[in-house]
Amino acid sequence: MDEAPAATRQPEMVDGVIRTHALTKRYRGGQLAVDRLDLTVPEGSVFGFLGPNGSGKTTTIRMLLGLIEPTSGTAHVLGRPVPRAARTVLPQVGALIEGPALYGFLSGRDNLLRYDAADPTADPRTRTSRVDAALDRVGLTAAAGKKATAYSLGMKQRLGLAAALLRPRRLLVLDEPTNGLDPQGMREIRSLVRQLASDGTTVFVSSHLLDEIEQMCTHAAVMAHGRLVAQGPVPELATGVRGRLVVTTPDAGEAARVLKEQGVGDLVVTGDRVSGQVPERDLAEVNAALVTAGVRVRGFGVERASLEDAFVALTGEGFDVAG
Ligand SMILES: Nc1ncnc2c1ncn2[C@@H]1O[C@H](COP(=O)(O)OP(=O)(O)OP(=O)(O)O)[C@@H](O)[C@H]1O
């Protein structure tokens, strides 16, 4: 056994709920899926793991949950090394990957009762109350008696989350939990994630949707081609990245011409909105040039950089969700 008895166990040796150092996975076929990843997930955060499809998110999650062995590097979850201490650590980690495995012919409640019964440490005398509490937390109490086949995809995801919440968890790991959901289902899962985090559970959630991470997460790591591009508090990820100059005008074509003359690069015209890179020169001069050229300027300003701008600035690539 590599475990010290509970009474003599050291306080956590490694900071961060998840911490990886130079974590690398090369698949047998030679594909380098994760390349020297250094990740630090702070306690209590809703941590977004963001990257286009194929950027290595699922592979990382599988290593963190002890499902596959890293090729090299180390990973600690809740302060303990994985996969070595997986048996001690994983009971404190709730996971939802690739959608929950459900029995369609059973009701939502009966599915949870089965999950609970499969856990040898779960006391059968308190099973019903545990299941009811989990159903309540994910807002499925009213639908608990319906067969799982009759559930929408969003309800199935919520039931999966309920299963992950049958025992107290310090960490929840969710792999693309809103994938395939309609906008309403997405909103429900996002608000549920925020709610779960508000009572102290750290949530590590992967997504290929920039907006989603911006709305839902306190911190994020951005991946591209298996490498970490940036990580930190969400509001800070986009600082240091210049926003874009945005001009609103009914004379968009003429405005674009003048802006180009004024040294504004990467111009994009959409309807009555012209945007481009913020030029080096005084913006008052740029505005004056537009007015002098007869452009009717209705709006003129610099928009704060988004996470998408940060991604483009950091990787030199567009954030292509089809990856
Ligand atoms: N079992 C495997 N064997 C070989 N290559 C794999 C395997 N699983 C994933 N890959 C490759 O590793 C790279 C990273 O894949 P991964 O699934 O981790 O990315 P992802 O960011 O989670 O994307 P997605 O959202 O599409 O799952 C991809 O190029 C993928 O084709």
Keywords summarizing the entry:
single chain; alpha/beta; Alpha-Beta Plaits; 2 domains; six-stranded mixed beta sheet; four-stranded antiparallel beta sheet; 11 helices; 14 strands; disordered N terminus
Question: What is this structure's SSE topology?
Answer:
Layout: E1 18-26, E2 32-41, E3 46-50, H1 57-64, E4 72-77, E5 80-82, H2 86-89, E6 93-96, H3 108-117, H4 127-137, H5 153-164, E7 171-175, H6 183-198, E8 202-207, H7 210-216, E9 219-224, E10 227-233, H8 234-237, E11 244-248, H9 252-261, E12 268-270, E13 273-277, H10 283-292, E14 299-303, H11 307-315
Parallel strand pairs: 3-8, 3-9, 6-7, 7-8
Antiparallel strand pairs: 1-2, 1-4, 4-5, 9-10, 11-13, 11-14, 12-13
Helix pairs in contact: 3-4, 4-5, 5-6
Structural description of this entry:
With 323 residues, the chain is α/β, with parallel strands linked by helices. It folds into 2 domains: 226 residues, Rossmann fold (3-Layer(aba) Sandwich), CATH 3.40.50; 60 residues, Alpha-Beta Plaits (2-Layer Sandwich). Helices cover 31% and strands 24% of the residues. It has 11 helices and 14 strands. Strands 6-7-8-3-9-10 form a 6-stranded mixed beta sheet, with helices on both faces. The protein has a 4-stranded antiparallel beta sheet with strand order 2-1-4-5, covered by helices on one side. A hairpin with a 2-residue loop joins β9 and β10. The longest helix is centred in the middle third of the chain and has 16 residues. The radius of gyration is 24 Å and the shape is elongated. The site of adenosine-5'-triphosphate has 13 residues, from α1. It comes from Streptomyces thermoviolaceus subsp. thermoviolaceus. Belongs to the ABC transporter superfamily. One of its GO terms (molecular function) is ATP binding. It holds the Pfam family ABC_tran.
